[in-house]
Specification:
Elements: E1 4-9, E2 24-25, E3 28-29, H1 32-41, E4 44-50, H2 54-62, H3 82-93, E5 99-103, H4 112-124, E6 129-135, E7 144-146, E8 153-155, E9 172-182, H5 183-189, E10 197-201, H6 213-228
Parallel strand pairs: 1-4, 1-5, 6-10
Antiparallel strand pairs: 2-3, 5-9, 6-9, 7-8
Helix pairs in contact: 1-4
């Protein structure tokens, strides 16, 4: 079976939940869980962690990852795109594969079946990118925002006020699990979502993108639920 490369971006900085990539989650650093699934999937010949931290480097290597260099500061801030980090690794490692995986470090609900299903779909559909998504629970076009003048809530898009949510179409958002990119296209346009992007959609309780303490605590509940069911 053909093997691929997996890149896990894991900078040390995070504003809402400090050092979340290595925060203890059921007695293991949270980055351990996607690493474990990546190894168990059998899809990868090498799992590379891109980090700016010696501590994360040490932890990643402990769990069998390869950390060939520390990421530069300009690619370790809040504005750096995941595609920029991926291109940095591809260039430095001189990777010549057709596809490459970008696996997020803070989603302990990742499953092997998602990786394999997404790989099969991107090849079959000849897409440039695929990612795991979820449908919005509440329709985003019915969003409310605070009016800056009177401080009360108002509809963000008033033209959708009389629409029922079911008549506004289905909207998806990134589940914060992983992307697969066609490397040739990635270098051509450097976009997170190139023109030929597709998705594998999962249920709302099958993933959580951890950004703050509320997400972190809810992730524990979901992890237990998904583990025992």
């Amino acid at each position: 079976m053909k093997k691929y490369l997996c890149v896990i971006p894991a900078r040390i900085g995070s504003k809402r939940l400090k050092k979340k990539k290595i925060k203890s989650f059921f007695n293991k650093p949270i980055i351990y869980y996607p690493i474990k699934i990546a190894k168990q999937s059998g899809l990868f010949r090498k799992i590379i962690v891109s980090t700016d931290s010696h501590l994360i480097k040490k932890i990643a290597e402990k769990y069998g990852c390869y950390v060939p260099f520390l990421r530069k500061k300009k690619l370790s801030n809040d504005t750096a795109l995941p595609t920029e980090v991926l291109i940095d690794v591809i260039k430095k490692m001189q990777i010549r594969d057709e596809y490459i995986f970008l696996l997020y470090p803070c989603n302990p609900l990742l499953k092997k079946i998602y990786l394999k299903k997404a790989l099969k779909k991107i090849i079959k559909e000849k897409a440039d990118c695929i990612f795991i998504s979820k449908k919005f629970g509440n329709h985003p076009l019915r969003s409310l925002v605070f009016d800056k003048k009177n401080k009360f809530l108002k509809l963000k898009w008033k033209k959708f006020e009389k629409y029922n949510s079911q008549n506004l179409g289905t909207y998806y958002h990134d589940a914060g699990m992983f992307y697969i990119y066609k490397i040739k296209t990635l270098f051509k346009n450097k976009k997170v979502f190139p023109k030929k992007t597709t998705t594998v959609s999962i249920k709302k309780y099958e993933s959580i993108d951890i950004n703050d303490y509320e997400d972190f605590n809810f992730a524990k509940i979901l992890y237990k639920y998904n583990t025992v069911r």
